[in-house]
Design goal:
Length: about 400
């Protein structure tokens, strides 16, 4: 990778601590980028007059030596996007791209590859300074262990006593309710592998999946995680399961790193763990977590629930809350006192049986809590217990002339 070095001499605009690499084979576009930088930045700047031939090696070098990497898209767009993706996977440097085109498809592809900024040539006044200021804010800060512990978000794990208990339905709708009601950063992680359905339930078509995060866990940080998330209209962020059968090995170390990074970046982290009891050795079962054990009223479900409750009743165990799903007090095949005996105590939450609403959600890919129903109110009660916000009941419509 041939290169020339240049250090800008313009006054700093509060971002002089950043080191910047400008990569462009085109002299005119490269000069325009350097000129815009010179007006906004007085820190070290290096220009590269060609794309690197080896993406793997250069991504590590760029992430090690620079805070910001500015990439020209126009000379070889496909290769440039691969470069953006390679640098973003290392996840230390903030990647920006620039182009003379304003093609929406290219903009979308750049963001998916991991670019944080899409700048157009010619650069308008102040646009580079604003982009650098955002990069400065996003730059990972060094925090003490005590500060990290204080900043950890809530960890709320939905675990099924048996497959088919309705874990995904509850986790998705609880996460949406939490995002809406708390108005704080909320993340839903779909760990119900090999085929999780959270994205389908929420009407999301993910471009990335949790598999990428777990495969690159040794490099995982806030920037890398953000490139893999999908946004839901409720404000919820989603780390989806893959659309294809996942064959990756889920190491405890990878899951632990994902949990740590997620809790540092989000106020609440909701996990759909399916019925994966083998995850008990991971940080998902940290003593600061809340485990929602989802069960139904059946012999197999209650037996499994009893086993899980006994397992999680020891010292330093997470807080455990029992959720009976599809509860219908009018059609109990097992007496209430026997249910409580199997569960060792009354359940904290009882979600009513509402098959019609669940089917509508699955067909329309819209959350249950968007409608006024018994099941929606029950899930919002669970969310309210976390946020401390009162549950707003919708007023029933009156018949007659008065509305």
């Amino acid at each position: 990778m041939s290169k020339d070095q240049r250090t800008a001499s313009a006054p700093s605009a509060g971002v002089s601590a950043l080191s910047v690499a400008v990569i462009s084979p085109d002299r005119e576009r490269r000069s325009a980028a350097l000129a815009a930088l010179g007006e906004a930045h007085s820190g070290p700047t290096r220009e590269f007059i060609s794309y690197p031939p080896n993406l793997d090696d250069v991504s590590r070098t760029l992430n090690r030596d620079y805070d910001v990497v500015l990439v020209d898209l126009d000379t070889e767009p496909e290769y440039a996007l691969n470069l953006v993706k390679a640098v973003s996977l290392e996840a230390r440097a903030t990647v920006m791209v620039f182009s003379v085109e304003t093609d929406p498809a290219m903009l979308l592809n750049s963001m998916r590859a991991g670019a944080r900024e899409f700048l157009t040539v010619p650069f308008t006044a102040g646009v580079m300074a604003e982009a650098l200021q955002r990069a400065l804010v996003m730059r990972p800060a060094v925090r003490t262990d005590e500060q990290k512990n204080q900043d950890e978000g809530r960890l709320l794990v939905f675990l099924g006593a048996k497959g088919g208990s309705g874990v995904t339905t509850l986790a998705c709708n609880f996460a949406v309710a939490l995002a809406q009601d708390s108005r704080k950063k909320t993340l839903l992680i779909d760990l119900n592998l090999p085929l999780g359905d959270a994205a389908i339930n929420l009407g999301i078509r993910p471009q990335h999946s949790i598999v990428t995060a777990l495969q690159h866990y040794n490099r995982l940080d806030a920037n890398l995680l953000s490139t893999m998330l999908e946004a839901h209209s409720s404000g919820l962020s989603v780390l989806a399961a893959p659309s294809q059968l996942a064959t990756t090995h889920l190491s405890d170390e990878a899951i632990d790193k994902l949990v740590v990074v997620a809790r540092q970046e989000f106020d609440s982290v909701v996990v759909d763990a399916g019925s994966r009891l083998e995850l008990q050795s991971t940080k998902l079962f940290d003593e600061s977590a809340v485990i929602y054990l989802v069960t139904q009223i059946g012999i197999a479900e209650l037996r499994n629930s009893n086993r899980v409750i006994q397992r999680l009743s020891g010292k330093s165990s997470p807080k455990l809350e029992i959720v009976i799903n599809r509860y219908d007090p009018r059609n109990l095949e097992i007496a209430e006192e026997l249910i409580n005996k199997a569960l060792t105590r009354p359940a904290e939450w009882k979600i009513p049986n509402d098959y019609a609403s669940v089917r509508r959600m699955q067909h329309k890919a819209t959350p249950l809590i968007d409608e006024d129903s018994e099941i929606a109110r029950a899930i919002r009660q669970m969310s309210a217990a976390i946020t401390g916000q009162p549950v707003v009941q919708e007023k029933k419509k009156l018949f007659g002339f008065f509305r």
